[in-house]
Specification:
single chain; alpha/beta; Rossmann fold; N-(1-d-carboxylethyl)-l-norvaline Dehydrogenase, domain 2; 2 domains; 6-stranded parallel beta sheet; 3-stranded mixed beta sheet; 12 helices; 50% helix
């Protein structure tokens, strides 16, 4: 196929694995690596080639996609990938890395002769599995040709935000979007916790706001997870806590006090300490009660 590319995916957790599968389905030559090998090995059945090291994964790759825990993890993986990187390859940096991490990544890309695209995504496990992520992208025009088949395979649309990925324009927008996601999640969890404490049927709360200005789809998604005691992770407590901290830090660095984000960060920390770290972020509900 004309648009078949060699694509390396570094990081095959919940999101990265789903993205790699969609790239395989689209007919690309997909190589995968993960710090925990079993998570990458599971993708062999989908047609991905499993690499033992980042350098092996990126050797000959036209596009390298990073979807790791945070900025330092992505930078470490790409530094280790150095011997296999091809000058001119496109680096799609999709990790929620935080504003402070982007200049170092862009600097590494320059050193290696890579075309850097800041490309975080909106969406969790379900949209990732369906190839319906929204990609927020900033990078040079020359990256768009080779990047488009990859972005089309993993997402429903791409929002381009400029030609300089090193400014972190896409990452900054991602943090703004995630601040809203975490606010809704924390608000839903606290409302249901308060309902429990006041002996109110939580379904009555959901019925009361249904269809009105206070209603939203995400409220029901996270409320259903809590009410059904189903915390199969689409976005874990640990990762949500990391993102909440990045949001607070970004606000502080730019003179913006984010009290709700700070409170959410503390709730996620508390839920993790209670043993809920690997559960869906709706498990912030448990932070309202003693362990």
């Amino acid at each position: 196929m004309a648009d078949q590319l060699a694509v390396a995916v570094l990081g095959t957790g919940i999101m990265g694995a789903a993205m790699a599968r969609n790239l395989c389905r689209a007919g690309h030559d997909v190589r995968v690596w993960n710090r925990t090998p079993a998570k990458a090995e599971a993708l062999a059945a989908d047609g991905a080639r499993v690499a033992a090291t980042p350098a092996e994964a990126v050797t000959g790759a036209d596009v390298v996609l990073t979807m790791l825990y945070d900025g330092p993890a992505a930078l470490e993986a790409m530094t280790a990938a150095g011997p296999g990187l091809r000058p001119g390859a496109v680096w799609l940096q999709s990790t929620t890395a935080g504003v402070e991490a982007i200049p170092s990544m862009a600097g590494l890309a320059r050193q290696q002769g890579l075309v850097f695209v800041d490309a975080p995504v909106l969406g969790t496990k379900g949209p990732a599995e369906k190839g319906q992520l929204v990609i927020l992208a900033a990078g040079p025009e020359e990256a768009r040709g080779p990047a488009t088949p990859v972005l089309d395979a993993i997402g429903s649309r791409t929002v381009w935000l400029g030609e300089d990925g090193g400014t972190g324009a896409a990452t900054r927008l991602k943090l703004v979007c995630n601040s809203w996601v975490l606010a809704i999640t924390g608000g839903a969890a606290e409302a249901l916790a308060l309902a429990k404490g006041l002996d109110v049927d939580p379904r009555h709360f959901l019925d009361a706001v249904s269809g009105g200005g206070l209603d939203c789809g995400y409220l029901h998604v996270k409320s259903d997870a809590i009410l059904d005691d189903d915390y199969d992770p689409s976005f874990t407590v640990v990762t949500a806590g990391k993102d909440a901290r990045l949001i607070v830090e970004a606000g502080e660095a730019h003179g913006v006090r984010l009290d709700l984000a700070a409170a959410n960060a503390e709730r996620f920390r508390r839920a993790e300490a209670q043993g809920h770290g690997d559960k869906d972020m709706a498990a912030t509900y448990f932070a309202s009660f003693d362990a």
